[in-house]
Specification:
Chains A, B: Keywords: Tricarboxylic acid cycle. Chains A, B: GO terms for molecular function: ATP binding. Chains A, B: InterPro entries: ATP_grasp_subdomain_1, CoA-bd, NAD(P)-bd_dom_sf, Succ_CoA_lig_flav_dom, Succinyl-CoA_synth-like. The structure is a homodimer. By secondary structure, chain A is α/β, with parallel strands linked by helices. Chain A folds into four domains: about 240 residues, Rossmann fold, CATH 3.40.50.720; about 160 residues, Rossmann fold (3-Layer(aba) Sandwich); about 80 residues, Dna Ligase, domain 1, CATH 3.30.1490.20; about 120 residues, 2-Layer Sandwich (D-amino Acid Aminotransferase, Chain A, domain 1), CATH 3.30.470. Chain A is built from 22 helices and 30 strands. In chain A, strand 12, helix 7 and strand 13 form a beta-alpha-beta unit. Chains A and B meet through helix 5, helix 8, helix 10, helix 11 and helix 16 of A and helix 5, helix 8, helix 10, helix 11 and helix 16 of B.
Chain lengths: ~725, ~725
């Protein structure tokens, strides 16, 4: 891990808190934190700061931070934007160790606001003091009753301590999350809404939760990551510590991204850049708070499933079928029970029900809930099944019996269990969940949660595989790029990998062509090589299917004339043997200004836009990792002899691309290399039929380290070319 | 419309009801209907039948139906299975016009039960009396308080009259539906659970709701349709009457289908057969009750959207972005507002918010809900937008103001409006919904409902286009099929369509081949023609790329010898010019034993199994309908000159396939025709490169009408070949 993070302990575990702009009205922004903390019994000292009041909400008020006359850990600032700079200056002088600034009117508002915000960040940075905000909804630590927030979501709920931590770049989404988790009875550890991120950002917050012993699961809402490496390091730290991360990243559609840009003032960027990072390091993505909360209940209450085999028990045959449908679509299996289990179930069931999976215990349990109980006991230890879903509908009058049976058979059996109960009485839901059995109100919600939860086992493996990876730093967007001709791009590729090219000859004159061509087999392709004509086939710089010396001569002559007439810088004329192409790949090495250098692999050919099929991951990559990308393509079998087609050596190709990618990543002067097509020939060889590279023109400091974290956002620009696949 | 349906009026609007097996215990099966109807105030006469009681639940009881001594419309039978046959016989004699039989232990239980069930059906059929069940949860008409059901779902809810009707082949799913709709405040018209369907089936029930003036929207849960034409007719009648049908059809996965087969004893069949029918006639499918209920609220409360353009108004920028993401993925647009609307919004909004779409009114409405009100008024008439989604989170303290603004701006504006309100107080939800503004608890639920609702406009158009269609009856599964050779299959195709084949020559001897081949261009393909070798390329019956007379001779000679040695019936040796293939289609004409003859069109070639791409619809089809299927393929552009590739005339091909399909459908002796590949040549012609037909061996009565509806289920078998594409 290379990034450094701010330590948030003093923010979330302060011994004393001043509230600047404290209000006697518990419904006002400056009144809510005091009201909440008084109500919940915050054990530290609370100092309302209000020069116009003696007493605020029953507490002695002070005219200023410095007037307190005692050391204070945290200052909450609920003052007008214009006053904030002075308040922070005074607070720093008085020994404040952390600020939470609610005030808005900064970077989100105007360029003057941005300037002030930058000064606040710098001031705190220089003083070694934490700054959360400005324009933020604050932070909460449920366990010690620190409510440094004015969210209204704390109004109507009893707080529940638990293992779910949350980080949000949107205060509003943070508030909705709080409302939803408390509504559904989920316990919370800490909650941090980062606002304008002049100091603490989401990566600091995730890193904090990764190290917070109270947090077992990390949720988040993000719109825009500014420091890619820090985010990756923080996320990997959490996942490696066994804490799943489940994120909403908005702006995944074109429309949404445009809206996000106008909303946050930041460029959300192509969503694929984020998705690739999430996939690579094992962050699980969801698209709504409901979905996040559903999966969180399962993860927090139940162990992970060790495999895909699910046992389904239903009081309704129809619901059992619907569960099997949804599970199947979500990638689970619903295999038969083993013979022993079947025998036990048959003993427990009335004769006319058979011990299939899904197991239909029929509505007869309504008459004899003992049946249900005996069946569940018989199933509890089915050895081949990794998890169970139990479906119940209504049955309100016997719901207590049913829930007792469920708890006895399944609580703490070490296997994942989800209950779907349509029309469950609220008290039964509470009872079951108090025993760690999550209850879902309908089938899709449960299956979606199981599906998402299943990704976390893979996430931990991914994190472990990535341990010790030395990531390449991102480079700022280049001011100016320069293309290289195919033959020059080949130079770099040949130096750093064993990628194959067609048999070829580079000539400068017609005579050289005629003389040298005898070593090549026809038909031939002739290509003009110039940095000034990177897209040569669009401009007459490529001629295919040349089979005789006269045509070759005239073609080379033509191209030399084109180059001369249009004053191209000429690297020569490239003559290659034509390959017999079975399938095509497109391979790109590019640089993302936030997350660093990356590899894209996609299927090539005419259909690429109709049915896109590509994978993307950040460098460095091992050969195995690239092989996973290749095999992850929907059309991967076409490259390995599918139905008698050409069979390439994907494993060798993967290692070649990994070598090349890692060399590319380490060479900051190269912005991009594209190999298109990388053909699989009919005789099973992978051959690069064209290549192109873009180079960064030397600039002072450009190839060095990335700029400091706070300074990056403004000058960031659209990453070029990533949407090409 | 050709099917005839049972009229359910006397079942759902009886003037008098006898309950056989009436219980004094209102929690028992025989007690619940009486208890419910007494509580709700059923206005007709209620006669408990119980030989052991004088009074049941305060009503005079009778020892038998005949003892009532007055005409009775409906008898509910809650007796032991063994008693049911006698009860029905007595009831028919006493003039009962409809029975609802709750009793189980019939077809779902044993073969004896099936036999009794068949007798019950026949007895009622002969007497012209309705039979619902046996083994059913009954029927309900909310408006006149007929509760001929023992569902427990009526226990805990206030009933709400409304326009949502429901039909279910599962009593349990029917009960969950009732619980869910009343829970969410949706009004119901009638509800029918058909059980074992010895008499009334889902098609009768759908047809009833199609004609029921109280029903505006029809929901359903189905597992297995026995009479395809009746189901299609009933559904089309409903949709043509402007009543959308939204169905759950379980068993859509392999696992689920197997579970359904074991559950219902019927073969659920490949799901694609159902999906094709739904798509063709405009039935909208959902996969859960929650989803059904969400879309029902939108449809029942709001007008349909006349187009894809959605205006989004959100109190949170982040939530607006998430809405834009979900809407985009669901196929909606979120385009900018027109200039006039923008100007009005800008007037209404504080200066720093811009009138984009999504429109972020920011949390500032919490301070001044008048802003929200003015913005909504300004937006209410945005002429370019077909629907609106409003997002609110929490804001409990001003929720009344917000809801008043919403109602004033959007209720009854003639545009579809959905409200997403996370953490909405229950009374505000009720208030908004009482004004016809549906409130959803999170974004995905609302967008999914909008997406599903959008399909209904298309459904009505489809139903109108299908008006007057003379559907072909399904045929029972053939006992025995016989293949025909390619050349014989060509005969039928050539007779009934203008589909092109390669230039070709059919020969019987080597001499004929040598003599005739001078008219053909090389290279050639030679194919053995025999009904005994339908898959000829697997058995050496196809030789490609023959370019000279000697090879031709020896090839023809070889094939004649193969035919002779293996005693094949020989139709000749077919010699064809080889085509230069750009793309391939697979075309199949098949017969579904439930829904009738159908056309399948899929992309062909090596990738077909990796990335399936096919469409299926029932015959007859117009050329336009077939064109829609072709253009509906993901890879359709590849057949119309995509990126400089071959350009075929899809419109002409569609008409050709429609003609051929309709001829096939009308010729009951042919079970199946497959054309694979139907090639698009490089010069843009569609040519059938192979064809195969399967013929039904003549059997008594086979080619005539389908069997009577009640007799079909048992002998139905797996439809062959539909999974091939």
């Amino acid at each position: 891990m290379s990034a450094t993070f701010k330590t948030l302990d003093v923010l979330l575990n302060p011994c004393s808190i001043a509230v600047v702009g404290a209000s006697s009205n518990p419904m006002k922004v400056g009144g809510r934190p005091i009201a909440y903390m008084k109500k919940l019994g915050y054990a530290g000292k609370l100092y309302p700061i209000n020069p116009k009041a003696e007493i605020v909400q029953g507490l002695k008020a002070y005219p200023s931070i410095s007037a307190i006359g005692a050391p204070v850990d945290l200052a909450i600032v609920a003052a007008a934007a214009a006053a904030v700079e002075d308040i922070l200056r005074e607070g720093i002088a008085a020994g404040i160790k952390a600020f939470v600034v609610f005030s808005s009117g900064f970077g989100e508002y105007s360029s003057e606001g941005s300037a002030v915000q930058a000064r606040l960040g710098q001031m705190c940075h220089d003083a070694g003091v934490l700054l959360l905000g400005p324009n933020c909804l604050g932070a909460i630590n449920i366990r010690n009753h620190v409510i440094a927030s004015f969210t209204t979501a704390m109004e109507d709920h009893d707080l529940i301590e638990g293992g779910f931590g949350f980080v949000s770049q949107s205060g509003a989404l943070g508030a909705y999350w709080l409302d939803m988790v408390f509504q559904r009875g989920i316990g919370v550890s800490s909650w941090i809404a980062t606002g304008n991120e002049a100091g603490v950002d989401v990566s600091d917050a995730i890193h904090h939760l990764a190290n917070d012993p109270d947090t077992r699961l990390i949720g988040g809402y993000i719109e825009d990551i500014k420091d890619g490496p820090a985010f990756r390091d923080a996320a990997l730290a959490a996942i490696s510590a066994g804490k799943p991360i489940v994120l909403i990243k908005s702006g995944r559609s074109q429309t949404g991204a445009a809206a996000a840009a106008s909303h946050t003032g930041a460029l959300a960027g192509e969503d694929a850049r984020y998705q690739a990072l999430f996939d690579q390091i094992g962050i699980v993505r969801v698209n709504s708070l409901s979905e996040m909360v559903a999966v969180a209940r399962l993860i927090l209450m139940q162990p992970p499933a060790s495999g895909p085999n699910v046992g389904v028990i239903s009081v309704s045959g129809g619901a059992g079928v619907m569960l099997a449908d949804d599970l199947d679509e979500a990638g689970f299996s619903v295999p038969p029970f083993d013979d022993d289990t079947r025998a036990r179930v048959n003993d427990a069931l009335p004769g006319f029900v058979s011990a299939n999976n899904p197991l239909d215990v029929t509505g007869s349990v309504a008459g004899d809930s003992g049946i249900f109980s005996r069946v569940l006991d018989a199933l509890g230890s089915a050895p081949d099944h990794d998890s169970f879903v139990l479906f119940i509908g209504l049955m309100v009058s016997i719901s207590r019996d049913l829930s007792d049976s469920l708890v006895r058979a399944f609580a703490n059996r070490g296997k994942q269990v989800a209950v779907v109960w349509i029309g469950a009485p609220a008290e039964v839901v509470r009872e079951l969940e108090s025993h760690g059995l999550p209850v879902f109100a309908d089938i899709p919600e449960a299956v979606q949660a199981m599906k998402t939860a299943r990704q976390f086992s893979a996430a931990l493996e991914k994190a472990q595989r990535l341990e010790g990876t030395r990531w390449h730093a991102p480079l700022p967007v280049a001011d100016r790029l320069e293309a290289r001709s195919e033959i020059r791009a080949q130079d770099f590729i040949r130096t750093h990998s064993d990628l194959a090219f067609p048999e070829q000859l580079l000539v400068g004159t017609v005579d050289e062509a005629v003389e040298g061509v005898t070593t090549l087999s026809t038909p031939l392709v002739v290509k003009l090589q110039s940095p000034d004509m990177p897209h040569k086939s669009d401009h007459g710089g490529v001629r295919l299917g040349i089979a005789d010396p006269d045509t070759l001569k005239s073609t080379v002559q033509d191209m030399l004339e084109i180059a001369d007439k249009t004053r191209l810088r000429l690297d020569g004329i490239l003559i290659q043997e034509m390959s017999s192409v079975a399938q095509e790949l497109i391979v790109g090495f590019k640089r993302d200004p936030v997350f660093g250098p990356l590899l894209l692999i996609g299927r090539g050919g005419v259909e690429v836009e109709l049915r896109p099929d590509s994978k993307m991951a950040y460098l460095p990559l091992t050969g195995d990792a690239v092989l996973s990308m290749l095999r992850g393509l929907a059309t991967a079998p076409l490259f390995e002899g599918y139905r008698g087609g050409a069979r390439g050596d994907l494993k060798a190709l993967a290692q070649t691309l990994a070598d090349l990618g890692n060399a590319f990543a380490a060479e900051p002067s190269i912005e991009e290399i594209e190999i298109n097509p990388l053909a699989l020939t009919r005789d099973g060889r992978f051959v690069a039929l064209d290549a192109l590279s873009q180079h960064r023109l030397a600039q002072e400091g450009q190839a060095s380290e990335r700029p400091p974290r706070d300074a990056q956002g403004a000058e960031r620009q659209k990453s070029p070319g990533l949407q090409e696949l």
